[in-house]
Amino acid sequence: MKLRKVPSAGLLVFLSALVVYTMSLNGVWSTDHATSFMQLDYSLWTNHTVALGRAGNFDPQSVDDFVYNGNYYSAFAPGAAVLALPFVGLGFMLDGHFTLYGNAMLLSEFFVALTNSIATYILYKLASLYFNKKTSTFIAFAYAFSTISWPFATYFFQSDVSAMLDLLAAYIVIRMARSHAGRIREAIACGAAVGAALTVDYVNAIFVPIIFLFLVYTFKKEKATVLKTSLGFLLTSSMGLLSLALYNLAAFGNMFVSSEQVYSNSSLLRDFSFPLPLGLYLNLFSPFRGLFVYCPILILGALGFYIMVRRSGKVDEGLLLLACFLGILIPYSMWHDAAGGVSFGPRFLVPAIPFLLLPAGFLLEQRSRGSSFFAYALYFAGVLFNGVAAVTSAIPPVEAISNFPFLTHTLPSFLGDQLDTWWWGSTGQLWWIPASFLIIAAGSLPLVANRVFSRRESARVR
């Protein structure tokens, strides 16, 4: 029988994520985050300086801008703005001037959508090291559409960009461990991913010791391999630290003073002052910010960790994934603003989600009908929560910790025709058709992919 050409699973998950994200891009709101990033991009693009403008002549327009020695600066790590510069700069060229509501805004959001689509593809490749095609595809779609990475792929936030780079580093180092080769070029690539990640989010610096220790442990019996891989990794990851040091020097005249320190006027230790037990409850279980509430599919990941470590023999890699997850969860649960301001769920934890989600595959591959039904029920619940937020707003107002913003703000906004997508204003009373189609499509994609690949396998057997 002649087989029809079917796109590869990796390409399918990438393109599906990119199309859905692009159709969900925000065209209504400019958040403080996005404003500050775009101001930095505009200054880099037009004035070739990290200063946003002179005090008295510059309108900050964002609470994330601050004054230092007569100039305004952005409070954020500069990596996301720098990586997005080709996209945002093109937008400014098309707009002809600085504006928050034009091509620059949409292209900045498209950059984030693209990075999270790449993260979805990398997660598929990482899952493929453990699971069959169907399970790996499901995990990739679960990250793309059943977690808060979808709403935050529609705004110019750094979380999804950070997730892509963190995942890339983890994928490379696990590939190295699997090959037992310890090639220097892979260590350099892994270090480059971590170096770029820590310029996007300072907390990603935790990946330097985590991956370094994993490399040392993995190749501990091969002294030459340990030496070359560790040095290659540390050398390129240190380029990220050097880049931040040069940025700090250009902005504040001191390589060891970060924008976050100047903005908050505090020391590094004082920034992590929130009680950890309360922060863990807030970010994992509370209706207001709980990761397991907004992304119920992660329940399977937590259960899958047990199987991964106790039954699969993947103890080393399981501990690496756990360390990556905790390396993001714990610092941000101690962050002085652990709630993260206006946000749909715990936006700080988006980069941690793939590391908790991936072990779900060990549970799914037990081939139990009950576990499959439970998995799809959790998946559809997550798609509903995050799909409605993606077309409505990723920035609902701050509420009481006992409230679930999906029910108190996001769903009422959706039912009241208060969307934020770029196409919303042109659809009139028919807004619900494309909005519903996006959510239904995202919910159906794992089933469609499963059917396509099953037919492909059956055709091969014949």
What does this structure look like?
With 462 residues, the chain is mainly α. The protein is built from 20 helices and three strands. It has helices at 9-24, 32-47, 79-95, 103-128, 133-145, 159-179, 184-200, 207-218, 223-252, 259-264, 268-271, 276-284, 291-294, 298-310, 315-333, 353-357, 360-364, 369-392, 405-415, 432-461, and strands at 53-54, 65-68, 71-74. A hairpin with a 2-residue loop joins β2 and β3 (71-74). The longest helix is centred in the middle third of the chain and has 30 residues, at 223-252. The protein is globular and about 65 Å long. The model has no long low-confidence stretch (mean pLDDT 92).
Features:
single chain; mainly alpha
Short recap of the structure:
This protein is an all-alpha fold. The chain has helices at residues 9-24, 32-47, 79-95, 103-128, 133-145, 159-179, 184-200, 207-218, 223-252, 259-264, 268-271, 276-284, 291-294, 298-310, 315-333, 353-357, 360-364, 369-392, 405-415, 432-461, and strands at residues 53-54, 65-68, 71-74. It contains 20 helices and three strands.
